[in-house]
């Protein structure tokens, strides 16, 4: 081997090692390539290579690193054309003034590749060499050529020629030469992806017209990117040659492009869509934008205006600087020093890994762990045989084995786990566990699972739950309706996508108890489930769940805790375990995919007469909270409207797909999508505006709820409609040429709390800590939502002290009372109600203690910022600080007071019904792209009424964040499965919104006032923000295109067709 | 041959272990620097963003062999330059994060942008942050903080300019 620097990789205790050669020149690189053949790989940035590795490709024996070769780096602009070294990072090209001057098309193309941090590493040569890169259309339009080095020597080949031949593995690209783009020449470039930025390519195009004395002397048009083969479009180019640009027959060119572009289907977008979008983009970009379809709904009924409700205010720091408080945890988060539970490291900490089924359905014939156990460095291997208690968990039904022994029902099922001295050893050990499976038929749709003769996944059958609701006689009522609309609404398998994947650590303490630190949403219930698995008393287990790096319902069910517990107990040593993203995708719960067939009818004036709804939800392999999800969905099937005749059924079906369960909105937002779109369509049918139709049907405050149950006070639905009617969005902005603009509205009405059937209790405690801090202990979890800020706000307000004096203690069963789950928009109320109940007693205890110390009557003293004050004095200094009070007291004498209470419930128990609701109206203004059919949210205004705002930042964050999660649900997110397997295993294929996908402008407004005498205080807003986003965007899309999208995420393909057909799609 | 070295938060460090180990693992497991987070390990979430020669890279995609002679700055570093300080203060004032797992990546990506392109417009800010996913906030708070940080940096430059008698400032 040459004199280059080499290093050797040894992943794990076994397996092949990877060597890295850093050659000194291209000749040495080529020699290595020739010597090692397929065992060697060239890499500059190695970004694509590492994606391949993550997707399962094996690592080569030898990596030849080109990144530091001077002859492959840099941009040479001499002689009119650009010569760009193949290993030059894309970021350097993007920032180069020479490239911006000589080849602006290339500069723009580079900016469409991945994201800035990736472009620091990725090279232009790598983008070309993979033959799927997003720069290829631009390079083809620019007539680039490649300088190649092979055994035969150096040569220059036109890029188009190089692409037309099979790859030569024994050559390397030295440089890309790009002729200068003539100044003023018409040019266009467009990459169409699956979201607004950092996206795989759907198709990319580039076009460049060379003009000579007013006519097109030469045209170069190209398509490519991602699955689309890079291609010059010669026949279409020929149509343009010799014509003055103003004489181009754009219709003819469009037809020629459609006929010429080759593109594949890939399940995400059809070949026809790719061709059409490519043709549209080229024609529009080169001057034929007028050809694009107009698309506009035939009649737009807009509300005629009105007055925003008195007291509604914008929630923002700017609107109320004095009411804006720093989150207790924000500085630690911004400084990167907050210790997440997956960040824990300590001497002797073992690393755990879980062996997943990796197949959707199979019988386990045998599990052999002997080899893994014998591997040096392995501390323990656990299987179902190591579960001492009940080998099953599940919040509602215990049907999911902690470790499977007989059968696996989905790809993410856990079969065995190891604890080892390091990550590599743990991984090597996993590979040594032998599991023999006999495949079973895969039930990959609810239909397959309900078919006669289908294998039964659980003893209670594949129909895990069926819930019905009937009121009046819907069938007869439909016969009398003047207008009936019906559609089937389909919602995606949304992934929670918390940035911190499931994980944590556990250890057996010196006293024999077990402590588990793992992100979660209800430590006490996690403890209950773990105790059942171990057959231990709950008191012997402590569960710490805060801080958690995002949850959204996805950490409500147990995740890694069972395996952590088993490994810690078996090894007697501390063990950590942190799921990789692919494992999180495979194993974690998702939002239930739903099909909601809804039929809605009204009379000629638009009064609702009947709703019929049939919901089928894919539950995946295990129940988790899905039975409650479909129940909640059905509870919201009439929205906040009075409907005399209702027939509804919701079915939860077990399949071999990924397990589903809780996700923000919990079925309500899915159902709100259906009913709110139905309302919009009925408004059109009746010929009135969307506010008027809703107003005509709105439930009266204080009237019985959907089930006839009593509901709580302070309903603000009419006010939300007033706010919607008065929205400036209805008349905002002119219509640009390239997009159809629409505005839409949806209402929501989100239940708070677990409902009337489940136990829903909370406890908390206030106490003076030895250091003088006022501790507020709640078993709620800080999952990012700001419960700590809410606690500070509620306690400070109630006690009249400063927020900074309060130390929230959350998410630790060893320290906090059980406050119930951090779900169902219940935390805010629990916080507020707890301190309402415990506050007065705690204040008395503080004043009594202070009175004793100061020799004063407690009645002459008062609490204030800083400590204990003279009750009748307004002067600043306290008589006794909290720290001074605490310092003189024995630990057991420190004042404390607690509260235990039930979440407010309704009287109805024939089904699960809510008592407290928050209301909202969401308005979306969208642009539907005439080239692609893609939807961009321009404005998202969320009007909310959820009682007093406890903490402005937390409130704003919950609504804004829920809103964008809703945008993802609506436009880009779906964890698609086929044959029981996820099609995307990581965040390169599962596409959550980036900052470029977020609304251009957003506003959150709050109407805080409660009815006189309303004892319930602030309502929760954890779910309100996502609740009505999808139907608001759907209504806006319908306003823009005339077509009501009913399948989320909305298909740009369908919308493009709708634009072309003037609404029919 | 002496082991390859790199600069980490201003200190010389030796590299050890396999050349294909990721910088993310090197930071977290060898140096106890936990600000860079593993969110996807394929460069798709930005939670492990660090600065390499002053520019943001995702540490998970930087293999150890690339580090020889490199200058790495992580968000663990308390004193990381004027842009970082101003960006942090603005993000704190705006309460710009919720769970905070993505925070370090945004701090460095944004500070690097405002250092290179102080007058970046909103579209450029969005483009520069498009590789950093946040699942909690919906990004509006981060954008507000970005604009606040930009204003404060502008003001600081303005006052610094005013303090120099011969400084020329754009009208």
Brief overview:
Chain B: InterPro entries: 2Fe-2S-bd, 2Fe-2S-bd_dom_sf, 2Fe-2S_ferredoxin-like_sf, 2Fe-2S_ferredoxin-type, 2Fe2S_fd_BS, Beta-grasp_dom_sf, Diverse_Oxidoreductases. The complex is a heterodimer of chains A (1065) and B (171). Chain A has 1065 residues and is of the alpha+beta class.
List the domain count of chain B as a whole number: 2
Helix percent of chain A reads: 25-40%
Straight-line N-to-C gap of chain B: 57 Å
CATH-derived topology of the largest domain in chain B: DNA polymerase, domain 1
Q: Which pair of chains has the greatest number of interface residues, and how are they split between the two chains?
A: A-B, 93 and 76 residues
Mean pLDDT figure of chain B? 92
Question: What share of residues are in beta strands of chain A?
Answer: 25-35%
Major sheet strand order of chain B? 2-1-5-3-4
Shape of chain A: globular
- The average pLDDT of chain A is 95
Name of the CATH architecture of one domain in chain A: 2-Layer Sandwich
Oligomeric state of the chains in view: heterodimer
Structural write-up:
The complex is a heterodimer of chains A (1065) and B (171). Chain A is of the alpha+beta class. Among the domains of chain A are: 5-65, Uridine Diphospho-n-acetylenolpyruvylglucosamine Reductase, domain 2 (2-Layer Sandwich), CATH 3.30.43; 73-291, Uridine Diphospho-n-acetylenolpyruvylglucosamine Reductase, domain 3 (2-Layer Sandwich); 341-444 and 496-590, Alpha-Beta Complex (Aldehyde Oxidoreductase, domain 3); 761-902, Aldehyde Oxidoreductase, domain 4 (2-Layer Sandwich), CATH 3.30.365.10. Chain A contains 31 helices and 44 strands. Chain A starts with a strand and ends with a helix. Chain B is α+β, with helices and mostly antiparallel strands and 171 residues long. Chain B folds into 2 domains: 5-73, Beta-grasp domain (Ubiquitin-like (UB roll)), CATH 3.10.20.30; 82-163, Orthogonal Bundle (DNA polymerase, domain 1). Helices cover 38% and strands 11% of the residues of chain B. Chain B has 5 helices and 5 strands, in the order ββαβββαααα. A 5-stranded mixed sheet of chain B has the order 2-1-5-3-4, with helices on one face. In chain B, β3 (49-52) and β4 (55-58) form a beta hairpin. In chain B, α2 (82-93) crosses α3 and α2 crosses α5. The termini of chain B are far apart. The chains are: A alpha+beta (1065), B alpha+beta (171). At the A-B interface, β1, β2, α2, α6 and α13 of A face α1, β4, α2, α3 and α4 of B.
